[in-house]
Amino acid sequence: MSTTDPHTPVAAGSPATWRPGLRSWLVLTVCEAKMVVRDTAGLVVPVVLPLLILVMSAGPAADQPVTGGYTALDVYVLPLVLTIVLGTIGVVNMPSFLAYYRRTGILRRLSATPASPAMVLVAQVVVSAAQALIGLAGALAVAFGAFGAHRPAHLGTAVAVYLLAMGAMYAVGMVVAALAPTPNAAVAIGLVAFFVLGALGGMFGGVSTLPDPLVTVGEWLPFGATVAALGAAWAGAPVDPTHLLALAVTVVLGAGVSATFFRWT
Amino acid sequence: MSTPDTRPPAVVATRLRKRYGSTTAVDDVSLRIEQGEVVGVLGVNGAGKTTTVELVAGLRRPDGGSVRVLGLDPRRERSRVRQVLGVQLQHASLHAALTVAELVGLYRTFYPRPRPAEELLELVGLTEQRTVRFEKLSGGQQQRLSIALALAGRPRVVVLDELTTGLDPRARRRMWAAVESLRAEDVTVLLVSHTMEEVERLCDRVLLLDAGRVVASDTPAGLVASAGAESLDDAFVALTGKSLETVE
Question: What would the CATH number be for the domain defined by B11-247?
């Protein structure tokens, strides 16, 4: 039985349980932000790639009315582009950052301090949420400024859907970071996951050419669910609860799996 | 008990074992280090030095045996041990794009009573490099920063894996002075070393590891005497040679 302790009791004057406080979380978050800003290449994908897709498809889509004065730009292209912002950050960037930290031993070094894994993960989430906001602001500025997009009919619903979707994309990214054996694997798995989710969610055009079961699966996956729910909120249509449920389930499952399997080394 | 030091030991390891695949890195290592001792771990490459100190620091899970640091289990009572144990790792990097001052500032926030940043930088001689990014530091400077971070939380026990390997003579003397100042503060130090000069100069006691086992544990002078050798170098050869002989 290994539960019995052959050793003497805890040393007198041994430390009480103490954990790094709010200041530590803030400093770590600022440090993570500096890392991202100083690694400019990592900023390009979530900001420039969605903008590129937006600019390429916004022109024709803005002239294509869909429903109630809303165009294809409003109810389809913008939701798609905003979902890509979240996907590149949550599913591709964050796991590759964490995998890089693991490979170089940064997480291992942190694990030798009272800092907890949660601190690094939360700092990453906060910093990448800021990146997502930048990507979002850039895409919206171009869509409204240059292509005459309309604001969502249900703004509050759209914001809520976006936040939930952000959680779901992070959850997928955290699973990738937790399960990938090497940094290269993390990047590869992240990219494959992103493109599979995207393909089934309509990133490469309509899903009407896909077999029905795949379409259904795609709608249940976070990318497709986000595009559909955002599009509905934009057009003022009721959001299908199954899409919200799908996103919520992704958050819960992803959090559980990554919390269970995340390793420092 | 009339012994001068009745405090609980700083480190107790009992019958530690660790295998990587088919390789046994640490094979039945037991050790006891009193508070305030400076103990060197000597051995050839692959003798199990790093694995031993990483097991002590709770960074690896032993396959067998147990470790207590100041009476605490470094894995099960992780957060309590982390407050009193400072670790310099051999193969660990830091946030490459952050500066020396930023890293010191970050690591200080992890501890309840951190040592002042200026004092840490002065101790390892990096005051002038405070605005330099980690990735721009020389290998020796990176190592000194890593030592500074190990001391950021005023640890009572410090594990230093390769204190001065790769450092120039001046930096090496500075690190030795840093260990002497730790000794003056009654900090327990477990340091992995490759140089006899370092061990003779700094350590109260030497653990000689060979093939994952402790083959000797004595003062540097005692080691020389018991091996019938003239120097610690000769003692090392004599002692590890002995174990090699048994293999033949």
Answer: 3.40.50.300
Chains A–B, number of C-beta pairs less than 8 Å apart: 106
| Residue from B174, B114, B181 nearest B149 by CA | B114
Best to test chain A binding among B106, B108, B143, B151 (most A CBs inside 10 Å): B106
Q: Which amino acid is at A236?
A: G
Highest mean pLDDT of the ranges A69-83, A102-116, B3-17, B128-142: B128-142
Residues in CB range of A3: below 8 A, 6 or more apart: none
Compute CA B1 distance to the chain's CA centroid, rounded to the nearest angstrom: 30
pLDDT tens column, B38-52: 999 998 888 899 999
- Residue A33 has a pLDDT of 92
The structure's pTM equals: 0.83
Which of A9, A20, A106 minimises the CB distance to B71? Answer: A9
State how far the Cα of A34 lies from the Cα of A46, in Å rounded to an integer. 17
Q: For chain B, which residues score pLDDT lower than 50?
A: 1-2, 242-248
Closest-CA distance of chain A to residue B40, Å = 20
For chain B, which residues make up each domain, given as ranges? 11-247
Q: What is the DSSP letter of B99?
A: B
Q: Please name the residue of chain A whose CA is at the shortest distance from the CA of residue B109.
A: A24
Q: Kindly write down the DSSP assignment for every residue of A159-208, as one continuous string.
A: HHHHHHHHHHHHHHHHHHHHH-SSHHHHHHHHHHHHHHHHHHTTTTS-ST
How far apart CA A99 and CA B79 sit, in angstroms, is 24
Chain B contact for A117, CB < 8 A? no
| Conformational region of residue B21, where left means phi above 0, alpha means psi within -120 to 50, and beta covers everything else | left
| A24 contacts B82? CB cut-off 8 A | no
User: Do B109 and A8 lie within an 8 Å CB cutoff?
Assistant: no
Q: What does the pLDDT read at residue A207?
A: 67
- Cβ neighbours of B7 in A, within 8 Å: 11-12
Provide the token pair at B179: 């260990």
Whether A16 and chain B come into contact, CB under 8 Å, resolves to yes
Q: Environment class of residue A244 by beta-carbon count within 10 Å: exposed (0-12), middle (13-18) or buried (19+)?
A: middle
pLDDT tens digits along A135-155:
999 999 999 998 888 999 999
